[in-house]
Amino acid sequence: MQDILQILAKLDWSPLYISIKTGIVATFISFFLGIFAARKVLKASGRVRAVIDGILTLPMVLPPTVAGFFLLLLFSRRRPLGILLYENFSIKVVQTWLGCIVAATVIAFPLMYRNARAAFEQIDPNLVYAGRTLGMSEMRIFWTVVIPTAGPGIASGTILTFARALGEYGATSMLAGNIPGKTATVSQRIAMVIQDGDYLTAGIWTIIVILIAFFFIFLMNLISGKALRSDKKRW
Amino acid sequence: MQLILDFEKKLEDFHLHVHHEGDASRIGILGASGCGKSMTLRSIAGIETPDRGLIRLGGRDLFDSSQKVNLRPQERRVGYLFQNYALFPTMTVEQNIMAGVRGSKEERQKRAQEMVRAFQLEGLEKRRPAELSGGQQQRAALARIIAYRPEALLLDEPFSAMDYFLKEKLRLEMKQVLQEFEGLSILVTHDRDEAYQLCDHLLLMHEGSVIAGGPTKEIFDHPKTVEAARLTGCKNISRIRPLGPHRICALDWDNLELTTQEEVTDDITHAGIRAHDFFPCAGENAENRIPMKAPVLTELPFEWYIVLQNKIWWKVPKDIRSHDFSESLPRALCVDPSAIMLLSLL
After folding, report:
1. Is A129 within 8 Å of chain B by CB?
2. Does residue A235 form part of some domain?
3. Lower CB count within 10 Å: N or C terminus of chain A?
4. Is B99 on the interface with A (CB under 8 A)?
């Protein structure tokens, strides 16, 4: 017990802040990109839709290290895009916090996209037609009818995205590295302390991660449960 | 208000070709399910786009392929009552009604209040659609459309998903709404009673084409074609062989010979008799006498269905408290020559 308190007192909390910050930013980006992509894909026709859907879902299916490898290829400062970003905008992705965000976003985005898409597919097209014949603009229909009706699906997609972004390890370690106080996330810190044989610190971090995970599952059930109660006739 | 429909659209099973031109204000489109009647309504609303043709409402071109005109649904000022009402599930009744109303917040609320009163939705303003009964949902959907002040009201099978009792009640309410509505209304239905009750002008549709059009009562009196007779609810239809200018042999009714009032012209292939048009014969030598052989009786609350051996259906009104008809069955049925409808195939 004494040991645990001692470790807690000296614990460097920066990985938690970095993970949460990364999670929030990655979720924010994924939220809008995912909804946008879901809407565009649903409008596309048959074969185009299948191809784009495959590409957008790929990061979820691939091992994160493979995604990390591609990201490294893309953003390396010896490659065209990396050079372009650095020379014109002084933007560095590799070994920076931006790298954390890029990696987490790429890996977590498909969860948002797929959940949003599934939620949109459930929507009765007549709701949209009704809005149109009532003179509502497409934007207004989308934000006041489609999004609220798809609410529970979008909310659970957002939470899953945040949870996935929070725990991202593989792609992050390749693209952003494990720089303490800068790019060291909780998952990376756990891997590092275990390598050092410090199981107690690893255990403390693990408990923190489990608590966070539980909180989010609870939050998700709360939202979907509420939606089911208030709107029995969802179809 | 003038309406011109003249458009085509290729569908999976058939070619939709709609033609109608006139000033009738309460129009009905009657047809079996899958005949293209809903597609017609959706084309008028702009939810579907015809391949070519013209849709003109009160002098405004909603769609004209020759001029490349295709107004968005938002610009058509046409209200559409969906079969499932399509109320926005996350909005309250009041918010739903305000959805199509323009203006300041006060104006929109005032209009919503008017509609709530007109459609007897008092006390339900803050409820969500899922918390309303089927009838209340329909009223809320109508209120939302009328609040928008459309020039035309399109009703897509509004009573198809309702139980019998509610249906009768809401049809009366709908009659009232349509009478008060100043624009044009088009009701799509497969139910001839609905069409008869709510529409002055009828279009009959079969496999994508308008096979008859005209004042409702005229269509019911003289269906002219086999499909039209069937859609207006004629139970007895038989192929015929002409025997003379006013004499036919009904092939599907055991070669029954009948005298008609109308002249049997070359295009006549069938004859139809409505099940209510038979009456018990007076004498042995009466005209168009049909012997009552081996009748099969079915009792309904207010009607007897009697099927004769030659497959003719006879419907007789009855008293709710009488349950035996076999004793008083006539020995033969008669039909007036004027009640025999001569029909052609399309």
Report:
1. yes
2. no
3. N
4. yes
pLDDT, position A216:
80
Total residues belonging to chain A: 235
Give the one of A132, A151, A232 whose C-beta lies nearest to B73's C-beta.
A132
Say if residue B206 is in the same domain as residue B267. Answer: no
**Interface membership of A149 toward B (CB under 8 Å):** yes
Give the domain-ending residue among B223, B253, B276: B223
Same domain as B209, residue B138? yes
Question: Whole domain around residue A12: which residue ranges?
Answer: 2-230
Same-domain pairing of B218 and B240: no
**Host H or E run for residue B16:** strand B15-22
Of B77, B82, B102, the CB nearest to A130: B82
The string of pLDDT tens digits covering residues B131-161 is 888 888 888 998 999 989 899 999 998 888 7
% of residues, chain B, pLDDT over 90: 29
Check whether B88 has a pLDDT greater than 90: yes
Residues B33-62: what's their mean pLDDT?
A: 90
CA distance A22 to B329: 88
Range of the domain at B257: 234-343
Interface check B108 vs A, CB under 8 A: no
Residue among A128, A129, A133 with most chain B CBs within 10 A, to mutate = A133
Residue A160 domain-assigned? yes
Number of domains in chain B: 2
- C-beta atoms of B130 and A233 within 8 A: yes
Same domain (yes/no): B183, B277 = no
Which residues, including other chains, have CB under 8 Å from residue B258's CB and lie 6 or more apart? B247, B248, B249, B250, B271, B288, B335, B337, B340
Helix, coil or strand: residue A57: helix
- Residue in A closest to B97 by C-alpha: A134
Report residue B248: phi and psi, to 5°: -135, 160
